Structures are given as C-alpha cells and as structure tokens.
Amino acid sequence: MAKTSKAKVGVFGGSGFYSFLKIKEELDIKTPYGKPSDKVMIGDVDGVDVAFMPRHGKGHNLPPHKINFRANVHAMKQLGVEHIFGPCASGSLQPGIKPGDFVICDQFVDRTKGRPDTFYDGPKTIHIAAAEPYCARMREIVCQSAEELKIDYHDRGTVVVIQGPRFSTKAESRWFSSMGWEVINMTQYPESILARELEICYVNISLITDYDVGLEENSDIKPVSSEEIIKIFSKNLDKLRDLLFKSIPRVVGKRDCICPRALKDAVVN
Q1: What gap in Å lies between CA 261 and CA 187, rounded to an integer?
Q2: Cβ(184)–Cβ(160) below 8 Å
Q3: 96 burial level (CB within 10 Å; 0-12, 13-18, 19+)
Q4: Which of 38, 101, 106, 212 is catalytic?
Q5: Nearest to residue 74, comparing CAs of 117, 26, 32?
Q6: Exactly one of 210, 220, 238, 265 is catalytic; which is it?
Q7: Tell me, which fold does domain 86-268 have in CATH?
Q8: 212 classed as catalytic
Q9: DSSP 8-state class, residue 198
Q10: Are β-strands 83-92 and 183-185 bridged in parallel, bridged antiparallel, or unpaired?
Q11: How far is CA 81 from CA 6, 39, 135, in A?
Q12: What is the pLDDT of residues 3-14, one digit of tens each?
C-alpha cells in the first residue's frame, strides 16, 4: 500500500475544486475494492488537512455509472477521514429552486441499478439504517456557513439519483417533480450510504445548474443549453469554494451525530 498521510476531512468533487487547494502531496491509494477514480490530493484548509478526490477523475473521464464508489470511499477511510463533503452539480425539479441556488439535501431516492452499493457482501450481514442518510451536524454547519456568506440556499431537499449517463425523459422528470422531490443528480448514490457504512459523516451540497426537462413546459422556464449550464456552474464555483472553506474547519472535533455509531445496531448475528 502506498504511503499515506492522515486527513480528517475529505472532499469528492469536480476537478475545479483542487485548483483552490495548496497541495502538499498526491497519493496513489490501493483499496480492497480496486482503483479509486484518481489519486488523492492532500491539501490544507485553515490548518486542516483535507483529502480531495475528483469523483469523475481529473479529466472527467469516468461517467457516473462507471465510478468505483466503494474504492473512492474506502480510500478516504484508509486515510483516516471522518467527514466527507460531497458537492455536485444538479438539476432542479421545482420552479422555486433556481439555477445558482445551493441545496443541502437531507434525503435521497435511489433510481440507479446494478451499482455495487455495500461493503458487506457476506458472510457478515449488515442492515445499515438509512432513515436520515446525511449527517445532521454537517448539514447544520454548512447551512450556517451559507447564511453567513449570504449564499442562496435551501436547508433541505430530496435528491433523486438516476443511473445515467442519459438524462431523464419529460415523463420521468414530471413524475419526480410531482412527488415533491427537489433535486436530480447521478452520483449521490451509493456514495453517501457507503460513507455511512464506514461510519464517516457525509454531507451533500447540490449546486443547481439548470431546470430539469420536465419543468420546461412551464411558460416561465426556458430550455437550457450545455453552454448555459457550464456558465452557471463556473459563475458559482467561487461561492462553492467559499462555502467549503468556511465549513471545513468547523466540522472537525466532536462527533455527536449518529454517523460514528452507525454499525452499533446494524449487525445481524
């Protein structure tokens, strides 16, 4: 196994984030579940060692359904990470959640298929509780940080995770919207629940880049182009960086949430 440095905080995200970090070293981590998406970069945020990995690879060469989520999360565990931030670009399913907004999700709906989504394939049987799949303490910290930074955010929301790489049909999108769900994305499952299986705190920050296709029949919402999505994402990347940099130092310390005790009652003897 490659020599590793300890980090208490990890970040999965797009390749734009690590350009903000002062990189100390890059680590090639080997895991029991194969190769992670890329090397892990260790940087510093206000005195806190942070492990960063681009979930799609540095060149964005991994489509969502090809990401080795188990290897990615296990690599963070091997480094000693206790808190993971999982920012991601997402679409809005509700007119009131606008491009440029941030949603700090508290629930997910899994619509993926065939993704390896547990570390426990036997002989030990684990039924991890998923009623509250995101760390409540981390969510509170991120929301407080967004408030202080005057960032437009929503303090809760349900993310529908689709398989990809295709986008939704209008019928699917209208269905998701009619259920009252707020956000659509391709990577939140199983990343978040794998972190819970390893008793790592995890928070999602969904950066809304566009309205999903089912909302385009609303006369006030116009179809969005790929060029516009990239423009919105780039425009808000600095806000995401500021939000992460303010939140990261605040999460280190006491873990008075359910995450570090997730396996306590999950083992079937």
Answers
A1: 25
A2: yes
A3: exposed
A4: 212
A5: 32
A6: 210
A7: Rossmann fold (3.40.50)
A8: yes
A9: T
A10: antiparallel
A11: 7, 15, 14
A12: 556 899 999 986
pLDDT digits 0-9 by tens, 108-167:
999 999 999 999 998 888 999 999 999 999 999 999 999 999 999 999 999 999 999 999
* Tokens, residue 149: 């930074």
Amino acid at 117: D
Condensed to tens digits (0 to 9), the pLDDT of residues 33-43 reads 999 999 999 99
Nearest alpha carbon to residue 210 among 111, 95, 123, 132: 95
Burial of residue 222 (number of CB atoms within 10 Å: 0-12, 13-18, 19+): exposed
Tokens of 82: 């206790």
To the question of pTM greater than 0.90 for the whole model, the response is yes
**Residue 175 per-residue DSSP state:** H
Distance separating alpha carbons of residues 44 and 38, to the nearest angstrom: 19
Q: What is the 3-state secondary structure (H, E, C) of the chain?
A: CCCCCCCCEEEEECCCCHHHCEEEEEECCCECCECCCCCEEEEEECCEEEEEEECCCCCCCCCHHHCCHHHHHHHHHHCCCCEEEEEEEEEECCCCCCCCCEECCCEEEEECCCCCCCCCCCCCEECCCCCCCCCHHHHHHHHHHHHHCCCCEECCCEEEEECCCCCCCHHHHHHHHHCCCCEEECCHHHHHHHHHHCCCEEEEEEEEEEECHHHHHCCCCCCCCHHHHHHHHHHHHHHHHHHHHHHHHHHCCCCCCCHHHCCCCCEEC
How many residues make up the chain in this entry?
269
Which residue, chain included where needed, has tokens 């806000």?
A: 239
Q: Does residue 28 carry a catalytic annotation?
A: no
Q: What does the alpha-carbon distance between residue 217 and residue 223 come to, in Å, rounded to a whole number?
A: 9
Domain coordinates in residue numbering, the chain: 86-268
pLDDT reading at 20 higher than 80: no
